[in-house]
Amino acid sequence: MTSLALTAPRARSLSPVLPVAAVIAVLGLPLGPGGEGGAGPADALSALAVLYCAIRLLRDRRRPLSRTAAVVLGLPVVGLAVAAVGASSPGAGLAGMGRYLQVFVLVPAAVLLLVRHRADFRLLAWTFVGLAGWQGAVGVHQYVTGTGASYQGETIRAVGTFGAQDVMGMATVVSFGLVCAVGLALGHAPLRQRAVAAACAVALLLPLALSFSRGAWIATALTCTVQLALAGMRRALKVGAVVAAAGVILVGGFGIGTAMLQERISSITQVTDAPDQSVTDRYTMWAAAVGMWREQPLTGVGLKGFPEHRDAHASLALSSGSDTEGAGAAYVKQPLLSPHNMYLLILAEQGLIGLLALAGGWLALLVCALRKVVRRAPGLDCGLVATGLLTWLLVDFAYADIGGPSTVLTAVCLGLAGWWGLSGTSGEAAAR
Questions:
Q1: 112 located within any domain
Q2: Is the residue at 123 inside a domain?
Q3: What is the pTM of this model?
């Protein structure tokens, strides 16, 4: 009995964000989603984290969310309900609504409520960095040994444990880790912690480069620029000089700047003059999404309706699919079932109502987060991490959408941004 009495306070002292940390950590396992497009282990754990949060709220009889947080996080429900009614079938409507609620409402709200103070926030940020380090190490090994995903006929593309059918998974994870590391390095933590965070940020540049993901490069570069600007000019110049030196060493000293990598970088400026087939497909699907929206401008074609209406609006320039192989997988022709633009996907399937509800909530969240950083609220590192993650998502959504095992991390990022931007500055949250 005495031992049980001693372990009870210890159990209560454990951080309530450990289930969220487990959601992040499980993505380090070499496990794909269950079935095609189905839920994976991280999705199952995120559901348990939501349930755990609900139980804590009932036990502690806490007020769930502030009025502002409830409005910002609850806005997407309006557009989702309308779009679910307009879906081609009740099953498609319910499945689509469940996925959107998970990623943009339930899990972000749970993360916001489970983070008690800045120590919990930093725990999740370092978990992001740890996951990025692991996936990045696997990706670098794939590049060096030629066991990665296929890229221009060679199996050298770093994809981590996500495999060739989710080539953006590792790039997304590494980007999140790099953004978190930069935010932690720019804060006011002890010098040793900031030095470790800076070293992690520099180390993650290599796997990010070897992912050959132009979108991740652009989003990360813009996000880190914003973080540096918010941290102050002096600090921005110092960190910028370190990053520039690291880039020179990686590219020049170690010969990381291969011809393929240099060609990939130069192709960023050629997406309009001489686009490759992947860019042509993307433009074609964007045009198809706009065509769907013009038919149903207010409500869209319904949740999960893009694949069904794609061929009726796409031109002949659209290819039959994307070729994937390598990283332990055989050759597969992946069908193009989304426009690879989150804003256009919402516009096509949910119309203006859905886009204003979702994007309006994201914009309000970004404004709240930026305002606290500019006002220099306590915990600058947390503010820079939260603002950075949200900025990365909003930039990345211009040429990517949700899908794959790493999607659940989008929900965690939104929850962290929500805690920083929408939680109060009094009490325990501001005391630590």
A1: yes
A2: yes
A3: 0.90
